[in-house]
């Protein structure tokens, strides 16, 4: 389903999923007036400047295992940017796709759970394509395909390239989560032996990354040698900035 403007593609897709829409039904908007990313952050969504896309998924997996969908989507976006558009990209845990040290794509997965059953997941993907500038604080943290490569790409063209990879990595996520995590780590300079600052509940930790677990938790090693698995949090800085 395509719209000229929506408050949020994820919000509409969630409503449709709750009403019984089939897996694979997607929502695409030319603009969003209330787009958002993880932790409720605003996602700048001006008309025609990016891909604003959500899809309904109904995987047969436990709710706790659904995090793999986020990592599969990050891999699909990163591969599309790198292989189809020749852009040097990186992935910052857990799901920010980066170019030139700034965020070019964000991914938001929202689920509905009943007991131990995953009813559905809504996968939202935003990719900055044709922005030449960003408002406010985003000037320092965001970038676009146009800024990084000088190439203007229509959202529909990008989506057509992305869809096959998204389908592939979603199927892999259902059958073998470890393969997704292995590919994610190959695409990410943050995954191993990188000094980072990680924001967790209660504060921040400076540590060296030691890869991902099969469920996508970030393994870190503290200065005293203690290792921890961080299932929920965010990498905020890396070595050159700490």
Structure notes:
With 242 residues, the chain is of the alpha+beta class. It folds into two domains: 2-187, BirA Bifunctional Protein, domain 2; 192-241, SH3 type barrels. The chain is 29% helix and 32% strand. The chain contains six helices and twelve strands. It has helices at residues 9-18, 67-85, 138-141, 145-149, 155-175, 177-187; strands at 2-3, 26-29, 50-57, 90-92, 96-99, 102-114, 117-128, 192-200, 203-212, 218-221, 227-230, 234-238. The strands form two sheets. Strands 1-2-3-7-6-5-4 form a seven-stranded mixed beta sheet, sandwiched between helices. A five-stranded antiparallel beta sheet has the order 11-10-9-8-12. The longest helix has 21 residues, at 155-175. It is globular. The mean pLDDT is 93.
What structural class do the secondary elements suggest?
Answer: alpha+beta
Distance between the termini: 44 Å
CATH superfamily of the largest domain: Bira Bifunctional Protein, Domain 2
Please write the CATH class name of the largest domain: Alpha Beta
Tell me the series of helices and strands, N- to C-terminal: EHEEHEEEEHHHHEEEEE
Salient structural properties:
242 residues, 29% helix, SH3 type barrels, five-stranded antiparallel sheet, alpha+beta, seven-stranded mixed sheet, single chain, BirA Bifunctional Protein, domain 2
Short description:
By secondary structure, this protein is α+β, with helices and mostly antiparallel strands. Helices cover 29% and strands 32% of the residues. The strands form two sheets. A seven-stranded mixed β-sheet has the order 1-2-3-7-6-5-4, with helices on both faces.
